[in-house]
TrEMBL record:
PANTHER family: FOUR HELIX BUNDLE PROTEIN. CDD domains: 23S_rRNA_IVP_like (cd16377). This is Four helix bundle protein. SUPFAM superfamilies: IVS-encoded protein-like. Gene3D superfamilies: 23S rRNA-intervening sequence. InterPro entries: 23S_rRNA-intervening_sequence, 23S_rRNA_IVS_sf.
Length: 140
């Protein structure tokens, strides 16, 4: 079943991560344009792109596969963010905000993926699940 990726909160979060990544990398040293900056842009764009591709593939199994790729890209970006901090390319405040966004995305996407795999929901846009102290909802 095809899903409207634009309605998924995880896709919206991933878009925010990509936008934030582009904003932050503008402040990197010029010599990093073809190094870490380029890698971070590629991995950040890959996150929402894979969600969109999976939604367009037609089956939940394919969506799950592309969610896995998206999670992998977010782990790649997280590693690059840690390097960014180690190289002092951004402030601790921006580092914390960036990693918080990525970690939140990873948690919510893993839960979404597990529920999708376990229950094979066809109408994922309407359900909400209770996770500890807060609720994750996947569409606006």
């Amino acid at each position: 079943m095809m899903h409207n990726f634009k309605e998924l909160r995880i896709w919206q979060q991933a878009m925010d991560i990509a936008r934030f990544s582009y904003q932050i990398t503008k402040e990197f040293p010029r010599e990093e344009v073809f190094g870490l900056t380029s890698q971070m842009k590629i991995s950040s764009v890959s996150i929402p792109s894979n969600i969109a591709e999976g939604c367009g593939r037609g089956t939940n199994a394919q969506l799950i596969h592309f969610l896995d790729i998206s999670i992998g890209s977010s782990c790649e970006l997280e590693t690059q963010i840690i390097l960014d901090k180690d190289f002092d390319f951004c402030s601790k405040e921006k580092f914390d905000q960036w990693t918080s966004q990525v970690n939140s995305f990873q948690r919510q996407t893993r839960v979404f993926r597990e529920r999708l795999a376990k229950n094979n929901f066809e109408d994922v846009g309407k359900w909400m699940i209770d996770v500890g102290y807060w609720t994750l909802d996947y569409v606006k």
